[in-house]
Every structure is written in structure tokens, then in C-alpha cells.
Recover the amino acids of this structure.
């Protein structure tokens, strides 16, 4: 039996995670992180979600606490999200929240309070293999709900203290379990979008427009010829088609975004294809990969794995040409179902 | 009632019910169910109990019975004082100290032209800052009698003197919710036009309070309906609650002088013990200017949330100040107004004692708090 602190977002997965840990005989306490101080209509931040988590904890007969991590969230997630957009990159705030909040701030707090481990409701699996440093991270049993991508930056210091109990279940099994326990979160919809951005309030453009100047930009072709304009160059993502194909003709995609000069280079789908990915901020679940290692890469939360070779020196070569990845996006590296590491696309 | 090893040191949040209050309430939760607003025998009996309670409350608060408006708690009393005063005069503004309870602070700041004025580093209102925000268009000034977080007692008489001089048309409201268990409110608040109290802070039930509206003031209702309380607060009376409040109030007044001395001794032992056993701990404010039940310290290098978690686990019920709707601790506006550095303000610990507090409670806190701080600092 261990003392486990469960991060309860108020959703069905973390509710059931707490219930499963109790069944396994652990001593369980729930905690909800208050992450976003502003208005919110989804995800992990609203008062209603905290209430759901608290009620589930009461139903399960465990203690529940609220940790106010709003200033850390602002520093490590919202601030970098905004400045990345200002620089023309497209970050993944959920990955940064996991990196800095759930699996750092929360993990440290749990250790301070005497817990042996933390648990979350992520659909992924942490497994112990033989030998030293052999905590491995693998895809969840429900491939369609697998969340190993947003956990791919975890290393041994985190993995050895993390339990992911619902990773062994399908989402349907999780919901069945919640129904059987009579939990009020049983039918709660999955959270989808960035939790601190209000879909009902103009979404990303309003959120960013309130924080950084959004400037019109020129759209040019690969030779520098003017093709048109965009209202806000900070909102253009590499790979985006919308708003770039005015005047008919062949479909055009954003190939690169330069916010300093206010320029979007647009081209055809074949211009967008590449076999080379440049990486920064590499992290490894075990040890750094040897150059020449064959890997599968996943470049978005629910993207298909792509066969590639890790070249070392911050480079990956894809076996087949694929659309280029927006700078700032997380790239997760796998061997079959096991996560090997992660990096940020340059 | 609580487990053997629990020290309840959060009396500023709420207090256990006094047996006198429970006994007084029971008949009104059972056989005496009448609505005081009716005219038949059952109603008349209820009305008599209501007015008996009003007489008792008036005598404890030093006002005439007709000046007592029963409300649904301290927050409503504060809202009625601020919003009800503003509504009496077109174009009037409300001002309050920067360390008011949110019931006053948010009422003032959500009104047109609402403004706050500052306090000293010791948590006492700054009369020069008050003077600077006063003008002839101010219609209500609100300054609490004692602060709910740091426990500082405010110089109400001096505040009133400044207001009468610089904004003669303004009424003065005082939130006496935290002061009542410790301060003889009748003389202390006699200079204020409006005085708010809340029953559950002195051994009465939750959800009932009162606003004194002296003849020098008048408030427009914020709840409309049957015109109860001389049209100042509509809604069927919470008679059991009102009777319970009156009984708790009367019992508090009768034992206050003795309790203040006894609890002050406990508090001093607690505060001195913490200051010597917790390296770096500092006490906020000046102890002689605080209510007897308040022990408020800042612990460098520790986060309140983590500290409260460990104290709770070890059987000490404490607090750090105010929480938001989700239950998360919020940075304290009181400490911020006192100019406490944000880093130091993260390690807030408020231990608030009451008439039920004992030496055992202090002993447990003096054992548990230093251990918890040491553990957090070492990890």
C-alpha cells in the first residue's frame, strides 16, 4: 500500500483513477489544481469542475484539497503560450502544463506532504521493466484515447512516482466503472480545447488579441511574390490552409511564419512536404537515443505515428515525405507503443 | 464533539454553537413555528419572541430596538449598509479601508466611484489616506471594528471624527463581525451610524445577523417583498436563528470580560511559543492592538497550502485567510494592503481562538506547527 495523491480535475478519468487506487488498497487523497485565474468554460479550471471533484471524493470517502497554482500556471503555461504565438510558433500548452504543473509543481508538493506517488487520469501506462532506470511509459490500452503524447516529456524522476490507473482501461470501461459507482462525472464530456481559452468568447484570437498586438501580414510565395494578406500574422500556423487560398487556383498552405517582418510564405501541398524535422528541447524517458535509431514519431495529440530515423544533433529524418510540423509543437518519439522521448519542433 | 486529538483553532471562520443558543432555538424549530408577520395566536407568540430577541440584541449592541434590522448574516448586513446607504442619495460614493471583508470591499468597489484607502504596515487604517479620499460626494464610509485576518482593532472614533469633518453628509458603517466576541461593541461602535454583526462568530447559528441602523442614518432595502423589519429587510423572519443569535449574544456579553482575559493568555502563549519555536516566523501587526483570539504569523520559506494540509493531518484546524469560490487559497488583500512582500505573504498562518479553546489546543498547535514547518523546509 502506498500513500497516493490523485490529481482530480473533476472529469471522469481522474474520478475513476481515484476509485481504482482505493480498490488496490492504497491510501488515497484527492487534490484539484486551480490553474487558471481568469474566466474559463472548459477543462480543468472552473469552479464547477472543482465541485465535481470534491463531490466525487466525498462519494469515494477520501479527503480532497484544492491547490492554488494559478501563478505557476501563468508563468509556465499561459505566458510562454502567448509569447510563442507572438514569435510565430504554435505551442502545445497541455504538454507544458504537464511538464511544469502536474508532473513538477504537483509532484513536488505531494512529496513535501509525504505521499509516495501521484496519480492522474491520463490514458497511458507506466510500467516497471527489469534493470535500473527502467520505468517505461507506453500508450494507453484505448488507442483512440491514448494520451502518451502529452506525457512524452516525462523522465525517470517523474515516472518512478507516477501512477496512471485508467491507462489499462478503455474509455468505455472507465465510464462503465463510473456509472457502477454512481459517480456524478460518469457522463461528463471529455475536455477538448485549451482550458484557459473561452470558446464562447471569441476563442484564441480574442485571448491573444487581449495580450499581444495582432498585426496584419503579407502572404508571399516561395519566390517572394505578393499573394495577399492576413489579418493577424500571430494567428497563422505552419500547415494552415484557411485564409491563404484567396483568388482561387491551387490550394495554398502556410510554409513559414515570420512575425518580425509580418510575412507568411505560402505554397502548394507539395511545398509543404518534408522528410526532415529539426528538434529542440529534447527529453528522454531513459537515455538519449543513439544516432541512427529507427523510431516512430507522433507530431500531434491524435496524429498517426510516422516511421523515422533519429539522426542525433536535433534532427529526424522521416521515411516518407509528410507535412511539415509547426514550430513549437511537441514531437513524441516511440518504439512501437513505448515512449522514448520528446522534443519541440523548431 | 470533535475527535480527541483535534484542536479547533479557526474561530474567526466560525464558532461552535453555545448551548444557550441551541436551547433557545429548539422550541422555534419544533412547536413554535409561527410566522411573526401574521395576526393569529400562533403568529402573535412568534412575534413576541421576535421582539424579545430584538430587545436583547439592542441592549447588547447599545442601540434602540427599532434600530435593529435582522438579516441573513454578516454579508447581507454589510451589503445592506453599503448599497442601502448609496441608494439613499443620487450620485453618492462609497469608500472603505483596503482591508475590509469582501462583503464590504466588493460592495464598495462594484459601486460607481467606489474607492479604498490604505492602512499602515501594522494593519491600522491610515487617517491621512482616509482624509485624501473623502469629499462632499461621499455618502458612506466603511471601516471594520476588527480585521478578520490579522485581528487588528481599528480606531473607529478617530475615523468618525475625520469623516464628520471632511464629509459631513456621509454615514459611517462598521463591520463588527469579528470584533463582537472580544470587544464591547456597544460603546466602541456607538460613534458609527451602521453596525453589522453575524451570529455564528459568537456561538450563534449560521445564516443570521443584524445591522444596527441608528436614527442618524437610513438604508434603502436591497431585498424587496413583504416589508418586514420596517421595510428595511423583506423576507419571513428566521425566527429560530434570531432567537439563537440573541441568546448567544447575551451569553457572550455576560462572559466576555472573563473570556477575553483567559483567551488572551492562551493566545499569548501560542504566539510567543510559535515565534520562539519556528525560526524566522514573524507576527503581523502589534499584538496589543489585536483582538484577544487572533494569532497571525508569517512563516518564511513555507507555503500556506502545504502547511495547512500537514496541520489538518495532525489534527490542527487552522486557516490562512480567504479562499475563493473553488476553495483555493487566494493571496491576501489584507497583507497586500499592509505592504507585506508577496514571498512572505505565501506563508500565512492564522490560528484563531475562541471561548471553547483550551490549553490542550495550544499545546497541540505548539507541537505540530514547528514540526510541520521543519518538514516542509527540509523537503
Amino acid at each position: 500500500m502506498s500513500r497516493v495523491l490523485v490529481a482530480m480535475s473533476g472529469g471522469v478519468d481522474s474520478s475513476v483513477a481515484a476509485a481504482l487506487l482505493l480498490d488496490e488498497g492504497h491510501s488515497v487523497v484527492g487534490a484539484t489544481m486551480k490553474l487558471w485565474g481568469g474566466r474559463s468554460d472548459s477543462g480543468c479550471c472552473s469552479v464547477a469542475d472543482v465541485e465535481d471533484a470534491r463531490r466525487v471524493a466525498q462519494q469515494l470517502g477520501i479527503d480532497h484539497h484544492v491547490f492554488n497554482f494559478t501563478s505557476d500556471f501563468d508563468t509556465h503555461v499561459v505566458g510562454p503560450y502567448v509569447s510563442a504565438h507572438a514569435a510565430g510558433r504554435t505551442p502545445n500548452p497541455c504538454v507544458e502544463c504537464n511538464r511544469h504543473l502536474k508532473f513538477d509543481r504537483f509532484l513536488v508538493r505531494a512529496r513535501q506532504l509525504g505521499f509516495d506517488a501521484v496519480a492522474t487520469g491520463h490514458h497511458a501506462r507506466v510500467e516497471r521493466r527489469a534493470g535500473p532506470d527502467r520505468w517505461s511509459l507506453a500508450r494507453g490500452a484505448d488507442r483512440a484515447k491514448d494520451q502518451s503524447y502529452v506525457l512524452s516529456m516525462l523522465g525517470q524522476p517523474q515516472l518512478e512516482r507516477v501512477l496512471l490507473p485508467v491507462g489499462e482501461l478503455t474509455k468505455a470501461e472507465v465510464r462503465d466503472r463510473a456509472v457502477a459507482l454512481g459517480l456524478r462525472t460518469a457522463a461528463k464530456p471529455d475536455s477538448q480545447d485549451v482550458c484557459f481559452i473561452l470558446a464562447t468568447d471569441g476563442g484564441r484570437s480574442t485571448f491573444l488579441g487581449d495580450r499581444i498586438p495582432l498585426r496584419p501580414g503579407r502572404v508571399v510565395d516561395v519566390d517572394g511574390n505578393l499573394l495577399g494578406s492576413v489579418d493577424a500574422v500571430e494567428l497563422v500556423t505552419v500547415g494552415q490552409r484557411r485564409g491563404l487560398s484567396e483568388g482561387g487556383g491551387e490550394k495554398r498552405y502556410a510554409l513559414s511564419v515570420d512575425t518580425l517582418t509580418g510575412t507568411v510564405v505560402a505554397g502548394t501541398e507539395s511545398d509543404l512536404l518534408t522528410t526532415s524535422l529539426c528538434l529542440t528541447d529534447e527529453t528522454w524517458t531513459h537515455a538519449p537515443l543513439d544516432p541512427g535509431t529507427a523510431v516512430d514519431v507522433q507530431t500531434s495529440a491524435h496524429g498517426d505515428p510516422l516511421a523515422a530515423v533519429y539522426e542525433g544533433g536535433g534532427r529526424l529524418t522521416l521515411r516518407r515525405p509528410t507535412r511539415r510540423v509547426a514550430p513549437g509543437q511537441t514531437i513524441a518519439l516511440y518504439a512501437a507503443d513505448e515512449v522514448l522521448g520528446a522534443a519541440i519542433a523548431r | 464533539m470533535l475527535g480527541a486529538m483535534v484542536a479547533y483553532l479557526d474561530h474567526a471562520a466560525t464558532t461552535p454553537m453555545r448551548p444557550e443558543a441551541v436551547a433557545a432555538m429548539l422550541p422555534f424549530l419544533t412547536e413554535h413555528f409561527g410566522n411573526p408577520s401574521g395576526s393569529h395566536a400562533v403568529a402573535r407568540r412568534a412575534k413576541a419572541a421576535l421582539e424579545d430577541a430584538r430587545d436583547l440584541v439592542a441592549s447588547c449592541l447599545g442601540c434602540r430596538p427599532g434600530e435593529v434590522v435582522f438579516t441573513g448574516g454578516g454579508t447581507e448586513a454589510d451589503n445592506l449598509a453599503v448599497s442601502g446607504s448609496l441608494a439613499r442619495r443620487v450620485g453618492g460614493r462609497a469608500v472603505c479601508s483596503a482591508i475590509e471583508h469582501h462583503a464590504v470591499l466588493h460592495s464598495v468597489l462594484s459601486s460607481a466611484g467606489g474607492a479604498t484607502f490604505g492602512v499602515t504596515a501594522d494593519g491600522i487604517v491610515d487617517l491621512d489616506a482616509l482624509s485624501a479620499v473623502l469629499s462632499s460626494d461621499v455618502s458612506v464610509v466603511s471601516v471594520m471594528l476588527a480585521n478578520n485576518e490579522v485581528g487588528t482593532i481599528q480606531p473607529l472614533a478617530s475615523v468618525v471624527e475625520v469623516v464628520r469633518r471632511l464629509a459631513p453628509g456621509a454615514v459611517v458603517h462598521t463591520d463588527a463581525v469579528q470584533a463582537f466576541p472580544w470587544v464591547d461593541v456597544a460603546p466602541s461602535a456607538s460613534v458609527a451610524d451602521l453596525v453589522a454583526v453575524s451570529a455564528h462568530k459568537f456561538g450563534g447559528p449560521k445564516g443570521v445577523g443584524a445591522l444596527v441602523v441608528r436614527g442618524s442614518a437610513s438604508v434603502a432595502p436591497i431585498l424587496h417583498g413583504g416589508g418586514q423589519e420596517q421595510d428595511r429587510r423583506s423576507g419571513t423572519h428566521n425566527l429560530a436563528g434570531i432567537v439563537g443569535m440573541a441568546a448567544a449574544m447575551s451569553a457572550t456579553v455576560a462572559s466576555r470580560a472573563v473570556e477575553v482575559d483567559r483567551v488572551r493568555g492562551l493566545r499569548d502563549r501560542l504566539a510567543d511559543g510559535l515565534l520562539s519555536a519556528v525560526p524566522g516566523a514573524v507576527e503581523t501587526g502589534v499584538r496589543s492592538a489585536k483582538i484577544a483570539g487572533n494569532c497571525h504569523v508569517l512563516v518564511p520559506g513555507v507555503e500556506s497550502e502545504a502547511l495547512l494540509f500537514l496541520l489538518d493531518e495532525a489534527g490542527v484546524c487552522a486557516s490562512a485567510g480567504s479562499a475563493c469560490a473553488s476553495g483555493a487559497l487566494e493571496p491576501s488583500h489584507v497583507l497586500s494592503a499592509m505592504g507585506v512582500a508577496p514571498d512572505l505573504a505565501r506563508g500565512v498562518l492564522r490560528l484563531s481562538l475562541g471561548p471553547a479553546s483550551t490549553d490542550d489546543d495550544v499545546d497541540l498547535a505548539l507541537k505540530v506547527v514547528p514540526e510541520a514547518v521543519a518538514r516542509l523546509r527540509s523537503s
In short: The longest helix of chain B spans residues 239-277.
